[in-house]
Amino acid sequence: MSRRSGILEFAVLGLLRESPMHGYELRKRLNTSLGVFRAFSYGTLYPCLKTLVASGWLIEEPGSTAEDALAAPLAGRRAKIVYRLTAEGKEHFEELLSQTGPDAYEDEHFAARFAFFGQTSRDVRMRVLEGRRSRLEERLEKMRASLARTRERLDDYTLELQRHGMESVEREVRWLNELIESERAGRDLKGSASEGSAQQNTNNGAPGALPRSGDSLRPDASDDTAT
Q1: 199-218, pLDDT tens digit by residue?
Q2: Bridge-partner residues for 61, per DSSP?
């Protein structure tokens, strides 16, 4: 299994743990909730779903809405299939959630793991966050060393691009430090966000918001058309 397909399977199982969905609904959630999956197609999703069904982690069920029931006779289309997580699938997803190996720290996998931190135990969250921070600190050290060696040979624009990259990594390290401090203090992000939201509503009526890990976790406003 490739790393990319492994991340997709993890995300699909996590979303279906929340509720059963059509393939179209799954694709929308992957696009809007997990930015790492913005540029993928049904040609990628459906083989993944078939693999998960064959593994016994999902089951396929016919759509139950009136729209689904009328889809075939009215439009010559098959009724939508709903994908539901099995007990074995739930157990497998919980096993994946407990993993804290190096893959959990990589850019794309970390974004997917972080999206499901609400379903992850605190000790596992800590190990993943600390592993991610360590990986970025190593990356930052290498970037600084490379910049020191090549600074005199770079034009202004290339130099500025490297500085921008370093600043992005430094920002994420600071963000991770804040998250780790909250975890160590036993503070729950959801609870903290609710308190912050209430305070902001008292002050100016604006809702609070959780911190995001760069663009990879920001919702995408794009929409798709069912096929």
Answers
A1: 444 344 433 333 333 343 33
A2: 82
Return the percent helix, strand and coil in the chain, to nearest 5: 70, 5, 25
- In three-state form (DSSP H/G/I as H, E/B as E, the rest C), the secondary structure along 138-186 is HHHHHHHHHHHHHHHHCCHHHHHHHHHHHHHHHHHHHHHHHHHHHHHCC
The rounded distance, in Å, linking the Cα atoms of 144 and 78 is: 56
HSE, side-chain direction, 13 A CA sphere, residue 185: 11
pLDDT band per the 50, 70, 90 thresholds, residue 85:
very high
Q: How many residues in the chain?
A: 227
How far apart (Å, rounded) are the C-alpha atoms in residues 104 and 3?
A: 11
Write down the pLDDT at residue 5.
72
Backbone angles phi, psi at 224, to 5 degrees: -125, 165
Kindly report, residue by residue over 19-77, the tens digit of the pLDDT: 999 998 998 888 877 666 665 666 788 899 999 999 999 999 987 654 454 444 444 45
Angstrom distance (rounded) from CA 166 to CA 152: 17
